[in-house]
Amino acid sequence: MLFRQLEYFVAVAQERHFARAAEKCYVSQPALSAAIAKLERELDVTLINRGHSFEGLTPEGERLVVWAKRILAEHDAFKAEVHAVRSGITGTLRLGTVPTASTTASLVLSAFCSAHPLAKVHISSRLATTELYRRLREFELDAVIVHPAPEESDDIDLVPLYEEHYVLVSPADMVSPNVSTLSWPDAAQLPLALLTPDMRDRQIIDAAFAGHDIIVNPQVETDSVASLFAQVAAGDWACIVPHTWLWTTPMAGEIRAVELVDPDLKAQIALATIAAGPGSPVARALVACAQQLKLNEFFDAQLAGITRRR
To answer: Partners of 48 in the beta sheet?
Structure first.
């Protein structure tokens, strides 16, 4: 069995089309088909249901594709490990983040890139938490920044990064200038623009309102925190966001932020990597950098400085 055969098989499983898989692997379709047929003979199983075209994997194929992805990932990690011994950490770190952590990732990456200047980074920041965990497990990502999920924790290592607090950001004339905190029931009385219901932060926000028997129906919903700030700047809405966004968005005189209390919610954000095996050198290097950071202190200081302004 050759690594090339496994690469071709995984490509067909992902593309669900022989011609597209061949193009992805930079080989002719007959060469790809012949390599997979040889793999089936060596294993003495049928891996792909074939008709006039790809018709899905057999049960044996479904099992093999899981192992093939792991074998290929370990093979790539071993090659990267050997290269790292000679030349230091190189290659590309594939990092995924939940949308609300897309800006805070830069703080983690600043330390990583300073320590490993030859490494490159590719960030995916528009994916749901479940999709991030799936891509991590299927070795499509090296690490993800997510809300920890108990149901996803079996084969995952977590490094806590920081805790999100929630703040109301509004036009300055929408909230009394004499207050620095606001209760959730009071926030519910304001015209709100919020994140979409499928996002974890919105679910946390809805739970806080539900604790007061309140259901909010915002006029504007978006999957972009930057879009929420734009709605506030327009002057018609207030929004609720993690306090970790405040450091990237200067609070001008016409916009202000106040902490939300009763309850004072906190949500953990962590760096997740695969627990099994040694893992990729870039993932281990990122974890080592993340463990040295003190992001809670940084974000809390930013929050205190902003919400105390009158």
So the answer is: 57
pLDDT tens digits for range 115-173: 888 889 999 988 888 899 999 988 889 999 999 988 887 889 999 999 999 999 999 88
pLDDT value at residue 193:
95
Show the tokens assigned to 270: 């962590």
pLDDT in tens, 258-279: 999 988 888 999 999 988 766 7
- Name the strands in the sheet holding 267-274, side by side, starting at the edge strand that comes first in the sequence: 120-124, 92-97, 143-146, 267-274, 156-164
Region of poorest pLDDT, from 78-92, 209-223, 235-249, 295-309: 78-92
Q: How far apart are CA 187 and CA 170, in angstroms?
A: 10
Closest CA relative to residue 222, chosen from 185, 201, 248, 194: 194
What gap in Å lies between CA 59 and CA 77, rounded to an integer?
Answer: 28
Residue 271 · residue 108 · CB < 8 Å: yes
Q: What is the DSSP string of 225-275?
A: HHHHHHHHHHTS-EEEEEGGGGGGS---TTEEEEEEESS---EEEEEEEE-
Beta bridge partners of 22: none
CA separation for the pair 279, 111 (Å, rounded): 20
CA–CA gap between residue 12 and residue 53 (Å, rounded): 11
Burial class (CB in 10 A: 0-12, 13-18, 19+), 50: middle
Coil/strand/helix, residue 16: coil
User: Which amino acid, one-letter code, is at 233?
Assistant: A
